[in-house]
Structure formats: C-alpha cells, structure tokens
Design brief:
- By secondary structure, this protein is an alpha/beta fold.
- It has eight helices and six strands.
- The chain has a six-stranded parallel beta sheet.
- Helix 6 links the parallel strand 4 and strand 5.
- The protein is globular and about 50 Å long.
- The mean pLDDT is about 95.
Length: about 210
C-alpha cells in the first residue's frame, strides 16, 4: 500500500493547534512592539496586522468554530515563560530578548480566539512547542495522530512545529491561509519550503472536509 500525507482527517484522532496567536505578538499593545512609534509600527508591521485583521484571524475563527462543532480537539500554544523573570527561557529567546512573564497579559491568546473553558493551552519558551512543553505526551494521551496547524509566524514557530511533529510521527496538515508572517514573500517561501513535510490546504477546503466527515 502506498503511503501518503494526503489523507482526510479522522475526527477521533485529530486536533487543531493554534500557534502563538497571543497578545504579545498579535495585538498592537503587545510587548513585542513596545517603544515603536505609530509610524515605525506601520512601516514594520502594518501589512502584517492588516492581514491578520482582514483574513487570517477570521479564518482562524472559522476553523475554531468548525472544529468545535465537529467535536475535534482545539489546542493552543503561546510564548510564555514559566517564571516572571524568564530565567527558564531558551538561550535563543534570551539572546533575542523575548520574555513573556508567567501569567502576564502578553501570554494570553487574543480575545478573538479565546480558548473555551476546557481547551488546552501550552506555554512555551522556545520556537518549537515540541521542545519546551509536554505536548507530545498530551497529544498521545488524547489519541491525536493527525495534527492541523495554524498560527504565526509561518516561517518561524509554525515551521518548527511542523518539522518536529512530523519527526515524532504525526500526520500534519498546514492551513495555508490561517498562517502568516511579516511579508507575503516570506510566507510564500515558507509554504514552498515546508511543503514536503505536510499536507497543505485552505480554510475553506478543510472546513468542507470536516463537514463531510
């Protein structure tokens, strides 16, 4: 039998994971943008936030609603240290200067995508959620073998999660229009680079699939 990544989701062994859609990186008042004038913010991140508002977050909301309705697990990861001073962060995050203190507003998923009461959120302190959390253990306990990924940013934490999930034996689906990074070129290049690791579909295609399932 030919092996393939292009398999429809089995509801009872699937999960949707949103990556880093949090106040720190997806809200104008997030600490990642602290100190930027409005002009500097617009120059560096204006396009990115316009895409989030007009397309990406609405697509994420549609996925969240559709997966909940289908009874499929919805999960989240956010950049958030286990300590207030961030001493537990990865060396890379320390060098970069990322510290989202434990329990802070910056570490919360944005209101537009707020987790339901019994949905799982994994705070992470490295680029890949599989490196700095126990997500693999939890996914296996939940019986999840097919993992759907959406989030920000495409060419960093999303890519890291895809590669690690594949190496750990998950079948991965990336929702291409529910991911975004800081330029269209970077986003498109990332999709091309990671294509060999995962199935790539649009929000509409995936919602149609789970609706038929």
């Amino acid at each position: 039998m030919e092996m393939t990544r292009d398999l429809p989701l089995e509801h009872d062994q699937s999960g949707l994971l949103f990556i880093d859609v949090q106040n720190f990186a997806a809200h104008r008042d997030g600490a990642e943008f602290e100190g930027l004038t409005n002009a500097d913010f617009d120059a560096k991140f204006g396009w990115f936030f316009e895409q989030l508002k007009s397309r990406i977050v609405p697509n994420m909301q549609a996925l969240q609603k559709g997966f909940r309705a289908a009874g499929i697990e919805v999960l989240y990861t956010t950049i958030e240290s286990l300590t207030k001073d961030g001493r537990d962060r990865s060396l890379d995050y320390k060098i970069t200067g990322f510290n989202v203190p434990k329990g802070s507003w910056d570490g919360k998923v944005i209101d537009e995508l707020a987790p339901a009461d019994d949905e799982i959120v994994f705070p992470k302190s490295s680029s890949s959620v599989f490196v700095s959390t126990h997500i693999d253990y939890v996914l296996r306990n939940l019986g999840i073998k097919q993992l759907v990924l959406a989030g920000i940013v495409t060419d960093q934490c999303v890519e890291s999660a895809i590669r690690d999930a594949c190496d750990l034996g998950y079948l991965v689906t990336q929702v291409t229009d529910a991911c975004m990074t800081y330029t269209q070129e970077r986003h498109d290049n990332s999709l091309k680079t990671i294509k060999g690791y995962c199935r790539q579909v649009t929000t509409a295609e995936l919602l149609d699939e789970i609706g038929r399932g």
